[in-house]
Amino acid sequence: MRKAMFLKAGTVFLLGFSLVLPNGLAAQQSQSAPEDKPAFRPEELDQLLAPIALYPDDLLAQILTSSTYPLEIVQAARFAEQNKSLKGDKLIEAAKDKEWDPSVKAMLGFPDVLAMMNEKIDWTGKLGDAFLAQQREVMDTIQRLRKKANDSGNLKTTKEQVVKVESQTQVIVIQPANPQVVYVPTYNPTVVYGVWPYPAYPPYPVYPRGYVWGTAAFSFAMGVAIGSGGGCWGCWGCGWRGGDVNVNVNHYNNFTRNNYVNSERYQRNASTRDQKWQHNPEHRQGAQYRDNKTAEKFGQQRPSSGRAQTSDFRGYDRGGSGGPGGGDRGGRGGSQPSNLDRGGRGAQPSNRSGGGDSAFGGAGRGGSDRAASNRGSASRGSSSMGGSRGGGGSRGGGGRGGGGRRR
User: Fold this and answer.
1) Which of 86, 199, 360, 363 is the most buried (most CB within 10 A)?
2) Cβ-Cβ contacts under 8 Å for 168 (sequence gap 6 or more)
3) Is the pLDDT of residue 108 over 70?
4) Mean pLDDT lowest for which of 23-27, 168-172, 321-325?
5) Whole-number Å distance between alpha carbons of 240 and 238
């Protein structure tokens, strides 16, 4: 009993440093264990990618990679919100001690896009899921959407961007017109692509801050300076032919060397200039993958119990009294959110299966524990009368009846 009480106290202590997630990601995490889900259909990919398919290639590649780390996106957006007086390189420099994935830390250079990803975290999580599971299909979908916008006459070279169509492959490339400044396009997907073919799957309403509806199908937000070297522009690029994202090792190593305390952890072998991007599951911080195949690919195993596990994030917005986990609702407590330390790294959330054997399984279950104790007491009392087996049983505080003997 003392051991159980100690574990509960320790869990309450950890909860003091837990991350409270926006509703969208909390809802996404309600699926506690990966499932055997089908692949995203073409109409679903179009729906997810329509809001960003016309972004410049290098920014698009950075968004795709960083979206696979949704919890760190939330942390980075909060950091940017707390340091509004800092911009660009100074904001990135202020986050030098944060151990976020480089693609996430580099998003600080695009605060409006980062805020958009945070505010639409449900979309961000699904985008990351799609990119991890169907990388080639994602890249092909972007090209298909670009072609639709180009055929509709809404994707053109301007003073802000250069649009090129490769003659042999017909691949459409979008780059900044000025190599020192990136302009993030703002557009209404239901207009810029022409007639939308999937009424049941309209494009996600994802727009950067400051987006203003107007008569023009395509416009641009304020430019972002990228020439000073502190950011990571060009670290990630779209490998259209291979259907993947490439990493420019020289740019990447320069960025990580200047913007991490423990930069050696992030350095890449410089013998090959361009390398394929690889997902690092460490930076998921315990966020579940969408399906079993992806989970197993990145080392997240199916739980041994056949029963579905309780979500680490369920109950975030249910107004319970027990903190972000949702509190004690009618004698049943909310589940424990992912624990994050002060440096930006996260502890793995606890997944409780079946009988709740996890060391963190008792958090917020005061009501059910007391009920178990009462049932145990009742069973001991009833054993002297009938010798039947008590229901309070094993751990909660009872013995098992049977002739009045206690084990």
Assistant:
1) 363
2) none
3) yes
4) 321-325
5) 6
User: CA 243, CA 245: separation in Å to the nearest integer?
Assistant: 7
d(CA 348, CA 9) in angstroms, rounded, equals 18
Region label for 158, one of left (φ > 0), alpha (ψ between -120 and 50) or beta (otherwise): beta
How far lies 54's CA from each of 68, 158, 218, in Å? 20, 13, 10
In the DSSP assignment, the letter for residue 350 is P
Return the H-helix or E-strand segment holding 42: helix 42-49
Show me where the domains of the chain are located: 35-278
CB 73 within 8 A of CB 79: no
| Rounded mean pLDDT, 269-297 | 91
Rg for the chain, CA atoms, rounded: 25
pLDDT at 143 over 60: yes
Distance CA 181, CA 162 (A): 12
DSSP assignment, residue 162? Answer: E
Query: What string of DSSP letters covers 209-257?
Result: TT----S-SEEE---EE-TTSSS-TTSEEEETTTTEEEEEHHHHHHHHH
Is residue 132 predicted with pLDDT exceeding 70? yes
Tokens of 207: 């727009």
d(CA 383, CA 388): 6
Q: Is 16 exposed, middle or buried (0-12, 13-18, 19+ CB in 10 A)?
A: exposed
Helix extents (H) in 265-392? 292-297, 366-386
| Largest Cα–Cα separation, the chain | 90
> What Cα–Cα distance (Å) separates residue 63 from each residue in 106, 265, 277?
10, 22, 13
Residue 318 neighbours by CB under 8 Å, 6+ apart: 326, 329, 334
The answer to whether the pTM exceeds 0.85 is: no
Between 169 and 392, where is the model more confident? 169
Number of Cα atoms under 13 Å in the Cβ half of residue 59: 26
Cα(53)–Cα(1) distance, rounded to whole angstroms? 57
With 0-12 / 13-18 / 19 or more C-beta atoms within 10 angstroms meaning exposed / middle / buried, residue 252 is buried
Count CA atoms within 13 Å of residue 265 on its CB side: 13
CA–CA dist 259, 268 (Å, integer): 15
CB 364 within 8 A of CB 325: yes
Question: Which band of pLDDT confidence, cut at 50, 70 and 90, is reported for residue 20?
Answer: low
Residues belonging to the chain: 407
